[in-house]
């Protein structure tokens, strides 16, 4: 094999992470990597560097990926989020924010929600040890409370937790007396456990390394257009599915028939597939088991062997050289070679980490260009070990330290052998190493000195990578990098034989599934939120293929989300665009939106997850009795009483009909209302013009903003390039999703109804075919807290005068009209009491004692 | 509230560069933690509007870059310069580097950008803050080099070379060395151009003298420039190569040897295969004795047993008189064929077949068995499976024949690979296959008695 005849100059410094007194020679931009030294030497002139491919770009065909398969029948819940775990109060803003786990909040919530579990055992314990039956005395009987029933009560219904629940005086007194004792013991017992659990959950939230390597695999079929996707499905991700997919040239991939299933006994964490010497193998890693299947030419999987890993498996990889050979690593720090014929052979074991001490038990192993040599990695570095050599020896291939100019806190997240790509590997000795900041390419023959370093800056942990064969001969190889948050980056790797690997052109990012939101129809907020949440589900697998027969190179990319959805996107290589001719940005095709609508319909048919906990219910019959006594004539309270008696939701018709009213009046702009003028201009898209007008009016010669010289100097460099600086364009980019505030993404115009109606602006902004939808949707809105709030505290000054009870507003199609007067508000408040109560509950935790 | 923060979170010491990274209890930093915290914080002192807009702007630029929208990125960049007026001094100080990084990237790829724009930008960036002068100068020079503007690059490097700020720190020193080395490399380019011119001139010509004088001057300057850096541990292939070439040209063989030996054997340097290759090529040019060449390649063999020079190494060993060299020759061949990238190297297979026969004829069955023992459990499926037999025969019949010979010798005539090839009926190769069958029968180590 050739070794690059001349390597890029690199400083070699040894030392710990983040050593700062050395110049960081790797503060590189992709262009720096593209630089070549002029090959003026006569001997080198023949292997001229290929021209820089600035135009190399894989253009997505749609603005976002599309769902490939209908959503599974199991509901999905995003689980614990940062909001659930972190302290929510005011934190002093610092340069380096700190995460503070909210143990108190969690503990009090637990005592609220599961008081029976927390206190019942205590009650039982105390009952056993309490001797309360003292001498019976008449005089005492009145003043001393029998504790027995109270202690029994501890495990019974939940008097605590709900401020509206009926508390007897006895219980109240008991809680005051026993509170300090009970609360303390429960808190101290539970607190420690909770603390531990929270810390674990938080670590997991920051980095969930279980899915490292990815749980989605593509098994090529007999023809280039057909293949199988292998992925886990089901709520617990414990069903392994084999879905045949066809990739028609020029069309979207299609699922052929129903997937085949294999039910497993644990969640699938990693699916690896590889075709070695014509034999397709499939390896699956679960938490404590690994299994191997052989996939026949017809696509049928036959089980070969299952392996139990007592301490838990962290990684599995299939040999690209020998059919049926695997490397398995476990949390105990052991790495084994596994073949179905010969069983397990432990080749390495070290519970300690390689370079410095790191608590993570994560281990990883992969193959190298030599079939008997493995790489073994942990968070601190990667080592190459000879499985035939004496145990314990090896050579560090990558060190988390100054050698690779690592930053402080940098850790290895993924290590992958890149040599197995295709029959004729172009980069047979390269290893990819990913950290949370950068990507390194290391040649096995030159340990410790990365051949290439690129700061990927992904906003989530890069746990998946795939090197694809070059789309056309002579082109660079696409290297896909996937982050847990669905972020995808594509790099173009060039260099083989005598030239060192390098980036051919700037890397690009690919759309993630949350970019597809715009393809879905408009929804009511709750469903919209559900859809958004589903699209934002973390990615757990990535697979890509370039069907070789296509005349125009096409990259098919599949992504598996934690919710079990498979999304696909299609990219075509923009061969060599001229500097100015850029293809128009991809847009949604009718087929794509139709596909999304179908998928959405199926998604909304899936019942949502039952809540983990519901507010304690208590009897309202007693309250009903109170109401009965009062003499009531009006229809409203009567309806309310009836609804309460039946235990159903209070609806409009229960409250009687309302006097109909005309449409809401339009706001009257004040004579010199700058804000409304500006808003109006913004709505009509003439913001820039307004701004200019405003500028012309207000800025005299003396009011020119002072700017520093350097800034204007620098600006002039760029202004010559940007040509025009359209203010409206610059402040509200139409394409770029707002990273800084994800909530401000282009959402369908779902603003509070009161605001829309008073201002009548929605009618202008919404296309006519959607106005009816919007109207229908608003008509169906139950009387939620929005409505009364809108009435009580209108949003703008102009509308406040109109929205007084004397001239009530009406929603357009009037099924949920508001009656005038105070009763209405009371009625509305009752109907939404369930939600508001829950909110109060959350805001003011209070222990039962 | 629990006092979890102290335990779980280790606050980082005041290091201004990475403010967005927060550390967990394990010491690992998470660039995405800031985002999580941002979703939770409800009260307290929030980021100022200024910081919010500049951060948003930064992410827009990054996104535009990753979408290759250079025009858009340039527009955002225009707004991003406001960060130079940030009231937060940490941010203000870190800003020039970010601006340089992003700005140069935009200007490198922007369709309307040209060298002049880039130069203007670089010159201005150099003088914003003192910390980046050397780095930016170096990158600027590399940019000019890439565009073939050697003179401008040279001027740039000369400026940077003399630049000093405050006390000379070690990082400054390394950078200055690097800058000087690049300057040396530039001088080398001029020198080698002159050398080319010289080779066309007549030796008696008057011009020849001036030209050679010129060259001498250059060489002297270059050696001064390159020397310092080459002493520093690192990978300096282009510098070493050009330096040695100049030294050799002026007959300073000892100097060149010293440089190369130091580059190859200094323990502070990374084990760079090229260092050994350069040394070997130099010794070969020098017509060094075989022993010497073998000793250099022996080390290369230990670092990169798959290198293409290994076949040359094998030839050297084969020609040697020493017995242990002959043994090593066999080991080297087996070693080359262990690697996935070398399985189709027909020369290696040819050598192995020939050398196996030779070794067995020379009654060194033990050597072969020693090599084979560690490989017999995986070579059959790695090299000699029926899949490879079919595909090799289809793709490269000559290779299949060579491999069949080796398979036959090592595994006996019952092996699948050998059986498949020997059953093939090919007009051209019939004779060859017959010969292979014969030598397998004679030499196979599986049934040595027969």
Per-chain topology:
The complex is a heterodimer of chains A (849) and B (450).
Chain A: E1 10-11, H1 30-34, E2 57-60, E3 66-67, H2 82-85, H3 103-113, H4 115-129, H5 138-141, H6 147-154, H7 169-206, E4 217-220, E5 226-233, E6 239-246, E7 254-263, E8 268-276, E9 279-286, E10 289-295, E11 301-308, E12 313-318, E13 326-330, E14 334-339, E15 343-349, E16 364-367, E17 373-378, E18 381-386, E19 395-399, E20 412-417, E21 430-435, E22 438-443, E23 452-455, E24 462-467, E25 477-483, E26 488-494, E27 502-503, E28 508-510, H8 525-535, E29 539-545, E30 554-561, E31 566-574, H9 590-605, H10 621-629, H11 635-646, H12 674-683, H13 687-698, H14 709-722, H15 727-731, H16 753-759, H17 762-765, H18 768-780, H19 786-792, H20 797-802, H21 822-831, H22 833-843
Antiparallel strand pairs in A: 2-31, 3-31, 4-5, 5-6, 6-7, 8-9, 9-10, 10-11, 12-13, 13-14, 14-15, 16-17, 17-18, 18-19, 20-21, 21-22, 22-23, 24-25, 25-26, 26-27, 26-28, 29-30, 30-31
Helix pairs in contact in A: 3-4, 3-7, 4-6, 12-13
Chain B: H1 4-8, E1 22-23, E2 29-30, H2 33-40, H3 49-66, H4 70-80, H5 89-109, H6 115-126, H7 133-146, H8 150-161, H9 170-200, H10 206-231, E3 234-235, H11 237-249, H12 253-265, H13 273-285, H14 290-303, H15 309-319, H16 323-337, H17 346-361, H18 365-373, H19 379-382, H20 386-395, H21 397-411, H22 416-423, H23 430-443
Helix content of chain A: 25-40%
Largest interface: A-B, 130 and 143 residues
Largest sheet of chain B: 2 strands, antiparallel
- Write down the overall mean pLDDT of chain B: 84
Arithmetic mean of pLDDT of chain A: 73
Number of strands of chain A: 31
CATH homologous superfamily grouping of the domain at 68-76 and 207-574 in chain A? YVTN repeat-like/Quinoprotein amine dehydrogenase
* β-strand amount of chain B: under 5%
- Bin the strand percentage of chain A: 15-25%
Net shape of chain B: extended
DSSP helical segment count of chain A: 22
CATH architecture annotation of the domain at 68-76 and 207-574 in chain A: 7 Propeller
Distance between the termini of chain B: 85 Å
Unreliable sequence segments of chain B: 1-21
Helix/strand class of chain A: alpha+beta
What structural class do the secondary elements of chain B suggest? mainly alpha
Poorly predicted runs of chain A are: 40-52, 156-161, 700-707, 723-764, 781-849
Strand order of the largest sheet of chain B: 1-2
GO cellular component, one term (chain A): fibrillar center
Biased composition (Basic and acidic residues) (chain A): 736-746
Protein name (chain A): TATA box-binding protein-associated factor RNA polymerase I subunit C isoform X1
Domain TAF1C helical bundle (chain A): 529-722
């Amino acid at each position: 094999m050739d070794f690059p005849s001349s390597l890029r100059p690199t400083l070699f410094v040894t030392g710990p992470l983040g050593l700062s007194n050395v110049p960081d020679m790797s503060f590189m931009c992709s262009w720096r990597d593209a630089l070549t030294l002029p090959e003026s030497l006569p001997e080198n002139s023949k292997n001229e560097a290929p021209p820089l491919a600035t135009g190399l770009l894989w253009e997505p065909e749609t603005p976002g990926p599309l769902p490939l398969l209908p959503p599974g029948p199991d509901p999905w819940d995003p689980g614990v989020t940062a909001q659930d775990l972190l302290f929510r109060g005011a934190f002093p803003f610092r340069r380096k924010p700190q995460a503070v786990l909210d143990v108190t909040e969690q503990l009090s919530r637990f005592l609220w929600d599961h008081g029976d579990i927390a206190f019942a055992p205590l009650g039982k314990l105390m009952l056993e040890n309490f001797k309360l039956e003292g001498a019976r005395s008449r005089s005492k009987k009145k003043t001393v409370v029998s504790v027995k029933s109270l202690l029994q009560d501890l495990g019974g219904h939940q008097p605590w937790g709900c401020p509206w629940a009926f508390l007897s005086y006895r219980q109240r007194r008991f809680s005051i007396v026993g509170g300090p004792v009970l609360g303390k013991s429960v808190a101290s017992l539970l607190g420690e456990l909770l603390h531990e659990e929270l810390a674990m959950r938080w670590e997991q939230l920051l980095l969930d390394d279980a899915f490292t390597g990815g749980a989605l695999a593509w098994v090529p079929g007999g023809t280039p257009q057909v293949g199988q996707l292998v992925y886990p499905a089901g709520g617990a991700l414990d069903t392994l599915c084999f879905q045949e997919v066809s990739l028609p040239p020029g069309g979207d991939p299609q699922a052929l028939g129903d997937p085949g299933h294999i039910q497993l006994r644990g969640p699938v964490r990693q699916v690896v597939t590889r075709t070695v010497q014509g034999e397709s193998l499939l390896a699956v890693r679960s938490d404590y088991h690994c299994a191997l299947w052989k996939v026949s030419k017809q696509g049928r999987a036959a089980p070969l062997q299952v392996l139990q890993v007592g301490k838990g498996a962290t990684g599995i990889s299939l040999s690209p050289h020998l059919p049926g050979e695997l490397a398995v690593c476990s949390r105990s720090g052991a790495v084994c070679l596994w073949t179905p014929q010969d069983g397990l052979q432990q080749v390495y074991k070290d519970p300690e980490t390689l370079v410095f001490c790191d608590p993570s038990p994560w281990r990883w192993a992969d193959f190298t260009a030599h079939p008997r040599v493995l790489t073994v990695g942990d968070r601190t570095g990667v080592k190459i070990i000879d499985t035939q050599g004496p145990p314990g020896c090896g050579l560090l291939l990558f060190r988390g330290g100054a050698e690779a100019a690592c930053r402080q806190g940098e850790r290895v997240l993924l290590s992958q052998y890149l040599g197995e790509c295709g029959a004729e590997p172009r980069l047979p000795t390269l290893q990819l190493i990913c950290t949370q900041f950068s990507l390194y390419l290391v040649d096995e023959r030159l340990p410790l000195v990365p051949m290439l370093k690129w700061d990927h800056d992904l906003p989530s942990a890069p746990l998946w990578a795939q090197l694809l064969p070059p789309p056309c001969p002579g082109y660079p190889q696409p290297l896909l990098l996937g982050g847990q948050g669905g972020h995808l980056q594509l790099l173009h790797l060039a260099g083989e034989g005598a030239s060192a690997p390098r980036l051919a052109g700037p890397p690009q990012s690919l759309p993630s599934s949350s970019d597809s939101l715009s393809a879905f129809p408009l929804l009511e907020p709750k469903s919209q939120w559900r859809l958004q949440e589903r699209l934002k589900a973390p990615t757990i697998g990535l697979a890509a293929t370039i069907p070789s027969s296509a005349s125009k190179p096409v990259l098919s990319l599949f992504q598996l989300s934690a919710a079990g959805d498979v999304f696909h996107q299609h990219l075509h290589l923009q061969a060599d665009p001229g500097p100015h001719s850029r293809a128009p940005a991809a847009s949604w095709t009718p087929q794509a939106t139709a596909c999304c609508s179908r998928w959405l319909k199926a998604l909304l048919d899936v019942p949502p997850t039952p809540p983990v906990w519901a507010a304690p219910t208590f009897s309202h019959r007693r309250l009903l009795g109170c109401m009965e006594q009062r003499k009531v004539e009006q229809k409203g309270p009567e309806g309310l009483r009836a609804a309460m008696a039946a235990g159903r939701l209070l609806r409009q018709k229960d409250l009687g009909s309302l006097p109909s009213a005309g449409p809401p009046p339009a706001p009257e702009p004040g004579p010199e209302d700058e804000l409304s003028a500006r808003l109006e201009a913004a709505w009509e898209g003439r913001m820039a013009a307004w701004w200019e007008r405003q500028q012309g009016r207000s800025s005299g010669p003396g009011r020119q903003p002072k700017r520093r010289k350097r800034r204007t100097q620098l600006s002039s460099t760029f202004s010559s390039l940007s040509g025009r600086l359209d203010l409206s364009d610059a402040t509200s980019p139409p394409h770029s999703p707002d990273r800084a505030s994800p909530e401000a993404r282009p959402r369908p115009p779902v603003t509070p109804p009161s605001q829309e109606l008073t201002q009548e602006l929605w009618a202008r902004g919404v296309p006519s075919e959607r106005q009816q939808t919007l109207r229908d949707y608003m008509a169906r809105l139950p009387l939620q807290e929005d409505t009364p709030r809108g009435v009580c505290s209108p949003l703008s000054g102009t509308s406040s005068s109109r929205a007084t009870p004397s001239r009530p507003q009406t929603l357009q199609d009037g099924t949920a009209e508001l009656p005038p007067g105070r009763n209405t508000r009371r009625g509305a408040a009752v109907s939404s009491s369930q939600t508001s109560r829950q909110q109060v509950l959350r805001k003011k935790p209070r222990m039962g004692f | 509230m629990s006092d979890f923060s102290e335990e779980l979170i280790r606050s980082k010491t005041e290091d201004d560069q990475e403010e967005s990274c927060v550390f967990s209890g394990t010491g690992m930093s998470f660039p995405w933690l800031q985002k999580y915290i941002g979703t939770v914080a409800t009260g307290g002192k929030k980021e100022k509007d200024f910081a919010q807009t500049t951060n948003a702007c930064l992410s827009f630029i990054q996104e535009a870059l990753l979408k290759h929208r250079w025009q858009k990125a340039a527009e955002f960049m225009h707004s991003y310069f406001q960060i130079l007026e940030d009231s937060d001094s940490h941010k203000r100080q870190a800003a020039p580097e970010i601006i340089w990084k992003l700005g140069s990237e935009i200007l490198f790829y922007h369709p309307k950008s040209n060298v002049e724009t880039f130069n203007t930008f670089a010159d201005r960036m150099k003088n914003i803050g003192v910390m980046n002068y050397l780095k930016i100068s170096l990158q600027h020079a590399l940019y000019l080099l890439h565009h073939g503007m050697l003179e401008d690059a040279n001027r740039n490097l000369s400026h940077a070379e003399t630049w000093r700020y405050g006390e000379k720190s070690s990082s400054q020193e390394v950078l200055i060395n690097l800058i000087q080395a690049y300057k040396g490399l530039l001088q080398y380019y001029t020198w080698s151009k002159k050398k080319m011119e010289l080779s066309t001139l007549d030796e008696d010509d008057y011009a020849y003298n001036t030209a050679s004088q010129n060259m001498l001057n250059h060489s002297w300057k270059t050696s001064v420039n390159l020397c310092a850096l080459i002493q520093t541990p690192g990978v300096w292939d282009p510098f070493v190569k050009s330096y040695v070439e100049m030294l050799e040209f002026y007959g300073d063989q000892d100097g060149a040897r010293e440089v190369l030996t130091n580059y190859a054997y200094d323990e502070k340097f990374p084990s760079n295969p090229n260092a050994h290759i350069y040394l070997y090529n130099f010794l070969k040019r020098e017509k060094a004795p075989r022993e010497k060449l073998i000793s250099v390649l022996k080390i290369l063999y230990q670092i990169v047993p798959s290198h293409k020079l290994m076949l040359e190494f094998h030839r050297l060993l084969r020609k040697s008189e020493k017995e242990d060299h002959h043994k090593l020759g066999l080991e080297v061949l087996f070693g080359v064929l262990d690697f996935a990238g070398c399985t189709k190297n027909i020369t290696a297979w040819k050598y192995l077949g020939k050398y196996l026969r030779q070794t067995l004829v020379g009654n060194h069955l033990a050597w072969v068995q020693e090599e084979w023992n560690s490989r017999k459990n995986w070579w059959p499926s790695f090299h000699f499976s029926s899949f490879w037999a079919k595909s090799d025969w289809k793709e490269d019949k000559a290779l299949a024949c060579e491999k069949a010979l080796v398979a036959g010798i090592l595994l006996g005539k019952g092996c699948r690979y050998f059986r498949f090839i020997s059953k093939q009926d090919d007009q051209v190769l019939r004779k060859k296959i017959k010969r292979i069958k014969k030598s397998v029968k004679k030499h196979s180590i599986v049934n040595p008695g027969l």
